[in-house]
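Example 3.2
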Amino acid sequence: MAETTDESKCEANDPDREICLCFHVSRRKIENFIRINQPKRPAQLSECFGAGTGCGWCRSYLTLLFEAHRNELNDGSSVNLSIPSSESYQQMRQVYREKEKR
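Structure, written as tokens:
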């Protein structure tokens, strides 16, 4: 498992960090979509610039963001999102896509 540094923690919380690499959808766009549109299911996040509809790699992270915002609304708590560094995220996505081609 990758070591977590202060820099990678900061990067994971960067609102301009791309979550959906296929359609270049940032965390900020997704969080604003959730706040404004209040989707009932994670699948509805696909309405946010097509997030999650390309290769599918980001769907688990979209679900994490959805759950985090739902928990914040329900009890005021926040969820610590475990998103790898941009470089690791892209490498893991590439492996995922290679497996999908088989």
